[in-house]
Amino acid sequence: MNRKDILSYNTINLSLKSYFHIIFLLITINNITAQLKADFNSGSLSDLKWEGNISHFKINVEGQLQLNAAGAGESQIYTKFKVPNDSIQIDLYFKLQFAPSNDNYGKIYLFTDNVIESSANGYYLRLGENGTNDAIQVWKLEQGLPRLLGSGKLGAISGDPAEARIRCKVYRDGFWIMSTDYNGKFLFEDDLEFYDPSLMLTDSLYFGLYCKYTSTRADKFFYDDISFITVEKDTIAPAVISATVIDESTIKLIFSEGLEESSAQNILFYSADNGLGSPDQAIFVPSLPNEVTLKFNTKMIKSGISYTLMVNGVKDKSNNVKQSEAIFLLTVKPTKGDLVLSEVLTDPYTDGDDFIELYNISDKFLKLDSLTIKNAQKNESKVIRTDFILLPGKYVAISRDIDFLKNTYNPPDTSNFITATLPSLNVEGANISIISNEGIHQITIDSFDYSEKFHFQLIDNTKGVSLEKLNLLSNTNDPNNWHSATAQVKYATPGYKNSTTITPNNTPSEFGITLDKRTFTPDGDNVDDFLLINYKMQKPGFLATIRIFDAEGFPQTDLVSNYLLGTEGAIKWDGIDGEGKIMRMGLYVIFTRLFHTDGDVLEFKNVVVVANRF
Questions:
Q1: Are β-strands 122-127 and 136-142 bridged in parallel, bridged antiparallel, or unpaired?
Q2: Cβ atoms within 10 Å, residue 193
Q3: Average pLDDT, the chain
Q4: Which residues of 375-401 are buried (b: 16+ CB within 10 A; e: fewer)?
Q5: Cβ pair 320, 237 in contact under 8 A
Q6: Dihedral sign (CA 101, 103, 104, 110)
């Protein structure tokens, strides 16, 4: 029923004086509160001139007025206040920590000309009754006789707790609007409208609280944030405070206040960039007055793209409007080919913890919540709980003690971390598997059988030294694809780019055997300490034997023997000879012989210089 309908509903002009009542005690109050405002933050009831059963109430540690009676009964307090001259806005909060009934309920007397209900004129709110239809009811008193004017949402305060924040606007022509938030917050929804043409308010009236209760409910009534002010015009326009992508076609918008329905449903008032445009639907449900759901049925939202949504034309119920915007993106669970292990530390410093590092090799925004980290050798798993989103081309370190990592390795501020417990990882070696849970199915995204033997041989003590993946796009389980982190980064790079990373540009562009550098310095300073012997084959299945000769043709070490190659990859040489010693400075020939079961035999010679850094 709109206001015009309400105004025409009752044309009887009653001469009854309309005020509001408060409590069941006959007392004349000479002192009048100039302005009624009670937030109870001071911890004292003396801020206002309360009368009645004051000893039955207290202010609790939450800064709320709370009933605190000794046993079953009825309690009431009240105060006289100066009524604003213009239309009035009444704000208040209540909570009944039980399901109300006729034995346990409350009344809030908004205005009354007498403190005895049986002889008063006025209005009050009743909170609770028998049954399951409990609603906030507005009653009018005429010489003590109550008459129901209207009810809010049925059943809204029938549960435990019965709670609401109320905003009631009373206009001097007799029009009432009661808005509520049944979560006790400030997101008000219009709940009740009615018209009382006989409304007349004098300069000073009573406000009060009445509680009826059994012994088990004697401390279960709570009140807060009571105020009576002149109705002020709303001049603040609604703004988008969040945009959440539900799926590839759905976005849920949350606004700062309730919206006017027709504007909220106008699809032309919403537009997203990156080719998405306006939605096909804008869904607004009056019971959720600050929410709008946008549906994009013809164009899909893509992960890996950050979108900006422009909102222009959406109004609140006071017709305030302004342009606002929100950023949204689609996050997805990682699957195989999206995420790789990029760094592992299993031998931390004393008082430190293990860590693993993940790298996003996809173009998607990956949500890592519910990923499982597993040590398959021990059949031990831990599930990651996080709201962290890993962007394309970014790293994230996972450890139980990220503060230790930050203090020990001094990573840059752009590094990413997740605090989580990992399965126990042996120093000597273990399996680390990254598993995505898809309902009852599990997908192994990446897996690494690491060994401490993968460290640079010249490092005597690997405590606090991480293993870094060299080529992030290559096979995780290739021992040649891992190396110790460098000394320049204090032997670990948690949450940011690895110190030994190589890019796919270092792999050969033509078929055959190539070296990633002409000179390297295996001197233990972790700068150019190793050589990558890159291979690119026209078919898989070649067996490689690689032997290192000095400049005079004498063999120094056999690097690999009958090593099965794929179609593309690299074999690492760290400059160590067959006796575990560093090669002397000089020129060396790398002889590679490839044999295939179909009879093909290929041979390559490459020259490299082993040098020292001065």
A1: antiparallel
A2: 17
A3: 88
A4: bbeeeeebebebebbbbeebbbbbbeb
A5: yes
A6: positive
Confidence (pLDDT) at 418: 97
Query: Residue 256: how many CB atoms within 10 A of its CB?
Result: 17
If you write DSSP's letter for every residue of 482-525 in order, what string do you get? EEEPPGGGTT--TTS--TT-B-GGGS-SSSEEEES-SEE--SSS
Look at residues 18, 9, 185 and name the one whose alpha carbon lies nearest to residue 95: 185
Residues 20-46 have a mean pLDDT of: 61
Cβ contact 567:539 at 8 Å = yes
Helix (H) or strand (E) holding 168: strand 162-170
Tokens 């950050």 locate to 306
The residue type at 351: D
CB 329 within 8 A of CB 307: yes
C-alpha 409/C-alpha 342 separation (Å) is: 17
- State the Cα–Cα distance between residues 149 and 154, nearest whole angstrom: 14
Helix intervals (H) in 1-60: 3-9
Cα Dmax for the chain: 122
Beta bridge partners of 356: 344, 398
226-245 residue pLDDT tens: 999 988 777 889 999 999 99
Q: Which of 212-216, 486-490, 503-507 has the highest mean pLDDT?
A: 212-216
**How much is the pLDDT for 18?**
35
Residue 179: the pLDDT is: 94
Q: What phi and psi, each to the nearest 5 degrees, are found at residue 403?
A: -65, -40
* Angle 112-116-121 from CA coordinates, rounded to 5°: 35
- Report pLDDT digits (tens) over 268-312: 999 999 999 999 999 999 878 889 999 999 999 999 999 999 999
Residue 203 has φ and ψ, to the nearest 5°, of -65, -35
